[in-house]
Design goal:
mainly alpha; about 100 residues; 2 helices
């Protein structure tokens, strides 16, 4: 008989979980935030992030966090556009 799967799980309460706590961000200080609703906005935000990082207006961590979010946004937009184009092509093929 093996002990596989018989290990006991330790229940950790939220008060005890200090390892994976999400730190709250301080409010944005500096230029007005950019509302990102199209790729052009993401490009403008990324340009601003680069500038603010170079001038020391934002920390390396903030620059990385925001750049990551911008890259995820761009990937989602690209995927969405690709799906729409594919659906349009399939619809045109089915109409024939």
């Amino acid at each position: 008989m093996s002990n596989r799967g018989s290990s006991k799980l330790k229940v950790i309460t939220s008060e005890q979980n200090t390892e994976n706590q999400v730190s709250k961000r301080e409010p944005f200080k500096g230029k007005m935030p950019v509302r990102v609703s199209k790729p052009k906005d993401a490009k403008r935000l990324l340009s601003r992030l680069i500038y603010q990082f170079q001038t020391g207006e934002i920390s390396s961590r903030d620059a990385k966090d925001l750049a990551y979010l911008v890259s995820v946004y761009i990937a989602v937009v690209k995927d969405t556009e690709l799906v729409e184009r594919l659906e349009n092509l399939e619809q045109k093929l089915n109409e024939r």
